[in-house]
Amino acid sequence: MPKYFDFHVSLTGVEDPPWRRFLLAGTASFQGLHDAIQDACGWEDYHLFMFTPPRGREILAEADTGDTEGPPAQKVKLSMHFTRARQKCLYTYDYGDNWEHLVELKGLVEDKQRFRRRLLDGAGVFPPEDCGGIWGYLECLAVVGKIKPSQDMDKDEIAERKEWLGDWDPDAFDLAEVKEEFDC
Fold first, then answer.
1. CB-based burial of residue 145 (10 Å sphere; 0-12 exposed, 13-18 middle, 19+ buried)?
2. Would the pTM count as exceeding 0.85?
3. Which of 4, 31, 32, 60 is the right S-S partner for 74, CB 3.0 to 4.6 Å?
């Protein structure tokens, strides 16, 4: 019977973070995990990334730029790091905005069906690409009324940010819609 990694991925550094839970084939590499996170979280894969232990400097895998410090993500199997439930790593995406995600293995599961990946659940919408890291994300949340704006934001900044955001809604996660694109 095929085996799958059951992952929970959440954005770090914010209260009530957006998160996703998905199954990924037991033969997948860190590149497959990167691709799954990008697609499940709505990122646009514009930037570099790396995986590291929660408390450590070692690079488990990273984007293959030809000049990488750690091993290229497509060459490192997930099974080399994830062997039992509750193991974790950090996924950093976009070294400018520095989005850190906690990736936790909930368990290893078997399923009669064969698939590459399957989205199970999630909550919240991840920040807009290039919004300025956690600080910018908090501004976005304030502009749409999710949190109270900081006293540092003036009316012009709020109007500009609101126009830039368009119809972005931090609560508009639609599991069925994302599953349609994600599952394969």
1. exposed
2. yes
3. 31
* Residues 6 or more apart whose Cβ sits within 8 Å of residue 151: none
3-124+172-182: in CATH 3.30.559.10: no
Residue type, 3: K
Phi and psi angles of residue 42, each rounded to the nearest 5 degrees, phi first:
80, 15
* C-alpha–C-alpha distance, residues 138 and 89, integer Å: 24
What is the average pLDDT across 163-184? 97
Lowest mean pLDDT among 42-46, 91-95, 148-152: 148-152
Task: Provide the residue ranges of all domains of the chain, joining segments of one domain with +.
Answer: 3-124+172-182, 133-165
- Count of alpha carbons within 13 Å of 89, Cβ hemisphere only? 26
